[in-house]
Design a protein that fits this description.
single chain; 478 residues; FAD/NAD(P)-binding domain; Enolase-like, domain 1
Length: 478
């Protein structure tokens, strides 16, 4: 049965993950009537199948690793983790995959929630098909924002669907630890899930295609240090290895590699990239290619469409929740300004309506042991961008605060300095606990703080943050 019903709003947001919620929050704060459409759980991928459950799985792993490095505490934590307790805590982080609290938040900001699949049906028009099959047409006076995120990419292997492979969703929501787990991939999801499930009792085999190693988009030493730690933890790491075929035989996964190896496991996780969730959002009705990443300007407006915005993963700028939320704040402000008739948006570099930080100032943390945290450009990225730069490297273990943090602390820091402007273009930290340090680097990069000024930002002693002093000294003295 199909029911026709029309509703007019200032703004319609497709997707109620953190990005869509933040767009709606900003447009509502500006006094614009806003509808938000969601086909699954309000709160999106991050809340239920990505950031929150994955970090809930990893936090006990990293806490135990830190404790094992401290004399006086190490002997108390030699045993295995309580996997059932870790999974139960993870379930609490996801609200047991119920979105009541998130729905209350949407209602609290005064936005209207429409449950169902949202699809463009022409300019400024969104058709919502509810779970019961009824349809409702929403119209937007000012803007439609596509905030539908991304999904796991699966390789084109015959019969893969019959194998029922894990993606990041299954890896973060599994009810028990598989005895043996194959992880295919070398990026963030692959190394984090290998870290988590190895510590929670699985025997993990990590297969990485090509010779670039782990975390290929970060500084090379980051992937090398994570690889060494995973191997020492018991992960069977094989680089230069691709999966040629995969089957499930009597419940057992059998993967055959391009080298002819046959690997058996209880589950197989493919962490081999992401694809945009734009295949069925009606892009064809407005002259765009279904299933494509959407190209946007710095106000997050889709090229060639003065009413359409793509925010978060859908625009492929930075597939990170925090960066998507940053974009959402920019997009919400831009939509509100245009709706109020502001003639000239503050869209220049670092303006209120420009996502400038998407260009060379993106922060990221990989929650492995050791942690990897970066902000801005790697040395290779800075050189490719045409900057005349120099890398400064420091052994983090030589910093007094590191020895306080853990016995035998192993880590490394790199600062990439622009020699023309004498500002920091990028920073990478590898070591236990460095995730909580990266915001200082982000401020230095985003603020384009001169090296001469950073000398006066005194790091407290004895903390790991004192690495900033060591980096600056190394830059001055060499």
């Amino acid at each position: 049965m199909t029911q026709s019903d029309s509703n007019a709003y200032d703004v319609v947001v497709i997707g109620a993950g953190p990005v869509g919620e933040n767009v709606a929050d900003r447009t509502r704060a500006a006094g614009l009537s806003t509808a938000i459409v969601e086909s699954e759980l309000v709160g999106g991928e991050c809340s239920y199948w990505a950031c929150m459950p994955s970090k809930a799985l990893l936090r006990p792993v990293l806490a135990q690793a830190d404790a094992r490095r401290l004399p006086g505490l190490a002997d108390s934590v030699r045993g295995p983790l309580d996997t059932a307790a870790v999974l139960a805590r993870r379930d609490g982080f996801t609200s047991h995959w119920k979105d009541d609290g998130q729905v209350q938040w949407v209602e609290g900001i005064g936005a209207d929630l429409h449950r169902g699949h949202g699809r463009l049906a022409g300019p400024r028009t969104v058709e919502v098909t509810a779970p019961d099959g009824t349809r409702r047409t929403l119209t937007a006076r000012h803007a439609v924002a596509v905030c539908t995120g991304s999904a796991a990419a699966l390789p084109d292997l015959p019969g893969l669907a019959d194998v029922r492979p894990w993606t990041s969703r299954e890896a973060t929501s599994a009810e028990s630890a598989p005895g043996r787990l194959i992880v295919v991939g070398g990026g963030v999801v692959a190394v984090e899930m290998a870290t988590a499930w190895q510590a929670l009792g699985s025997q993990v085999t990590l297969l990485v295609r090509g010779d670039a190693g782990l975390l290929a988009r970060m500084e090379p030493f980051a992937g090398d240090m994570v690889a060494q730690a995973l191997t020492e933890a018991g992960v069977d790491l094989r680089t230069g290895t691709s999966v040629r075929s995969v089957t499930r035989e009597d419940g057992i996964v059998v993967a055959v590699t391009d080298t002819g190896d046959r690997i058996e496991a209880d589950e197989i996780l493919f962490a081999t990239g992401r694809v945009p969730r734009t295949r069925d959002v009606g892009l064809d009705t407005v002259g765009l290619e279904p299933g494509s990443w959407l190209s946007v300007d710095d106000s997050l407006r889709v090229d060639g469409h003065d009413w359409l915005y793509a925010v978060g993963d859908a625009n492929h700028r930075a597939l990170l929740t925090h960066q998507g939320k940053y974009q959402a704040r920019i997009a919400g402000a831009a939509i509100a300004a245009r709706a109020s008739g502001v003639p000239d948006l503050d869209a220049g570099p670092w303006g209120a309506h420009a996502a400038t930080a998407d260009h060379g100032a993106v922060p990221q943390v990989v929650f492995t042991d050791p942690e990897v945290a970066s902000a801005g450009l790697t040395l290779a990225e800075a050189e490719r961008a045409g900057h005349r730069v120099r890398a400064v490297d420091i052994d983090l273990g030589t910093v007094a605060g590191a020895s306080v943090y853990a016995e035998g602390y192993t880590g490394r820091a790199r600062m990439v300095v622009d020699l023309e402007d004498e500002i920091v273009r990028g920073v990478t930290f590898v070591g236990p606990g460095v995730g909580e340090m990266i915001h200082s680097a982000t401020i230095a990069v985003v603020g384009q703080v001169p090296i001469s000024r950073l000398w006066h930002a005194v790091p407290p002693y004895p903390t790991i943050s004192e690495v900033w002093l060591r980096l600056l000294e190394a830059y001055r003295d060499n």
